[in-house]
Amino acid sequence: MSLIRPFAGLRPVPVHAEDVVAPPYDVLNSEEARQRAAGRPWSFLHISKAEIDLPEGTDPYAAPVYAKAAENLQKMLDAGVLKRNPQPAYYVYRLRMGEHVQTGLVAVASVAAYDANRIRKHEFTRPAKEDDRVRQIEALNAQTGPVLLAYKSQPDVDRLIASATSAPPEYDLMADDGIGHTFWVVDDAAVIDRLTAAFDAMPAIYIADGHHRSAAASRVAAALNRGPEAMSSYFLSVIFPHNQMKILDYNRVVKDLNGLSKQALLEKLGADFDVSEQDSAVSPAGPGEFGMYLGGHWYHLKIHAGRIPADPVGRLDVSLLASSLLEPLLGIHDPRSDPRIDFVGGIRGLGELEKRVDSGEMAVAFSMFPTSMEDLMAVADANEVMPPKSTWFEPKLADGLISHVLD
After folding, report:
1. What dotted CATH number matches 250-369?
2. Other CB atoms within 10 Å distance of the CB of residue 273
């Protein structure tokens, strides 16, 4: 059983790649997807968010949505917009966001390795979201949203993947969100064998984003029960070296001060943090540092060293903020369900934090230092789970550039 293997990917013919490419299904709501797909009949949103082709207000989890997705996929196949690769192959996928570039391998990864925790997790999944992905896979007989994986960078493997980029790409396009997507096909048998062997030698690889998709793939494989070497026992993945991946800050905003005055909160913070008022927005420079926007002013918070535990979850900045401030002072005990807290991806900038507090919607905001890939892997290696909203990966993988048919 190989950790990864090549596959005959279902992908756009090159002339239609720009027409098809779409944001991931889970970053847009139905109305946003409807607007993004307007005038674009081949947008992959017609498959990944098929409720846009049904009456407004349709429940995105209703049975007709999955049927419509299958119908739309068949239309693209019949029109020749999508075709399967003529033979199993690997693919190299490069993402560009401004000056940031990351280059990874598109492969299918073993469900058996996932079930055995060789493909390691760091998040809980929610049954409703798993069910949605199961129904989508079953309706399409395909996995259409790749799981974002990471491997601990190895220069020889990195170079082997990068070597494919010396050839002309199959696609090289800029999506409407400004992210560049470049894609190569790797069909040389010797290179395929070297890549397979290189990954088979790795003790583990790591889920960065896509826990629901990988969990759903495991459920589908178990239901089909075609054996560990069947294509249905592998799931669609893009695997990047860990040191090329970019995690942005995932910031917090809270609706009220839990009955405290501004001055009382500042005084209580002194027990666990060094606190200093700043003249401008605070973007933390390292772990253990936080920005706080309160009452029209920014503050720099640095947690006392004695408050940092050794365990891989407790020492995360998101855990430190929760255990030293959000829980004891602001009364946020379950950030998964408490309606008083919200989360703001770093892609939106610190100005968004100021806006939400200045508007009166929120009382206080906290800017975070991004979680590192090393911390993520340490949590996964310890078989632990990260707190919610610990990581915000950018740039995002596109939907539609490649899918995995289960036959």
Report:
1. 3.30.1760
2. 24
- Which tokens is 69 given? 């997705």
Which of 273, 276, 364 is closest to 324 using CA atoms? 273
Considering the chain, tell me which residue range(s) the CATH 3.30.1760 domain(s) occupy.
250-369
Tens digit of pLDDT for each residue in 42-53? 999 999 999 999
* d(C-alpha 345, C-alpha 321), whole Å: 16
- CA neighbor of 215 nearest in space, from 348, 298, 126, 316: 126
Q: At which residue do the structure tokens 């999506």 appear?
A: 175
Angle at 104 between CA 217 and CA 398, to 5 degrees: 60
The string of DSSP codes covering 91-141 is EEEEEEETTEEEEEEEEEEEHHHHHTTSEE--S---HHHHHHHHHHHHHHT
Find, among 282, 295, 288, 278, the residue nearest to 360 by Cα: 295
Integer CA distances (angstroms), 165 to 88, 108, 160, 172, 343, in order: 19, 20, 10, 11, 37
- In tens, the pLDDT along 111-138 reads 999 999 999 999 999 899 999 999 999 9
pLDDT digits (tens, 9 = 90+) for 352-375: 999 999 999 999 999 999 999 999
Look at residue 339 in the predicted model and tell me its pLDDT: 95
Instruction: Answer for the pair 44, 22: CB distance below 8 angstroms, yes or no.
Output: yes
Residue 32 host element (H or E) = helix 30-37
End-to-end distance of the chain based on CA atoms, in angstroms? Answer: 18
What are the helix (H) ranges across 186-327? 189-200, 211-224, 262-269, 317-321
